[in-house]
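HOLO CASE FILE
Compound: FE2/S2 (inorganic) cluster
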Amino acid sequence: MMVKPVTTIKTVVDTIEEGGADIKVFSLVDPDYWELPPFRPGAHIDLHLPGGPVRTYSLCNDPADNKRYLVAVKRERDGRGGSVKLHDEIRVEDTIGVSLPRGGLRLDGDLTHHVFVAGGIGVTPFLSAAAFLRHNSHPNFTLHLMARGEPPLRSLLAPFVKTGNVVIHDTARSGRPDIGSLVGLPTPGLAVGCCGPESMLDDFERATRDWPRERVHIERFVPPALTVDPNVKPYTLALSRSKLETRVERGQTMLAALVSLGIDVPASCCGGICGSCKVDWLEGTPVHRDRVLSPTERERSLMVCVAGSAEERLVLDL
Ligand code: FES
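Model generated. Tokens follow.
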């Protein structure tokens, strides 16, 4: 049985700080304080927690600050247990394996102005974006943060509140503002992004339906429910490099089929939103059901946690 090892970087918890609103902020560093692999604003990393769970978090610090990875974790009482483990069991000096950073926002090129819309802990990807824009002398951005009562991560937000780049909307007092009026029209040079609860993302998607896709960024932290299509047929999954193949039965995921072959693919959300299980495909016709790959990326890659096959045989580059 062949096992492809998952690559992780060894980090050590340097500090843990309270972020308000049931959030803890973890600073992860190299054990010898060497530089860490670089990341783009709004990028994510997977944390490989003791005991096996893998959880994905946005990096909150300035990408120019390459000596640490800063992640903010909200305690999710009804979640899968990863955030509770981080809050209750992880201490300063503990070791945590992390993935290479991936994903992120496009903030350069012909873009001159940015509007970010965030709900609660959904502010995290825009903190590193705000730091990047300030660091690179592009102060032309507005971050609308909606929170019920106390806003999260006050100390991380403070520099941008001071410069007038952050507008805090207390939804307990005034309800949620109209997202369409916050983002405005797709004028040249304007890019917009949103991260928050599903209802906020739905409003944002409606408000930006007619925008050029490359100027709209949507970040999800809860995978949409996946339904089993009754018309889906079993198919053969072949792996070109390891020369293995298996049947993927109706209702089975490609990820589960790979695990049954002893192939270890990193996976976190298992719902097509985090980007950790990306694999290249070579032959066949994948059915893409993820929310992370662009049309161009789909010509080459798929997310094995949710993708299927439209043909009897699909070949992966594994
Ligand atoms: S595990 Fe998150 S996209 Fe597949």
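CASE NOTES: The helical segments are 82-89, 124-135, 154-162, 171-174, 179-183, 198-207, 254-260, 295-298. The chain has a mean pLDDT of 93.
CLOSED: yes
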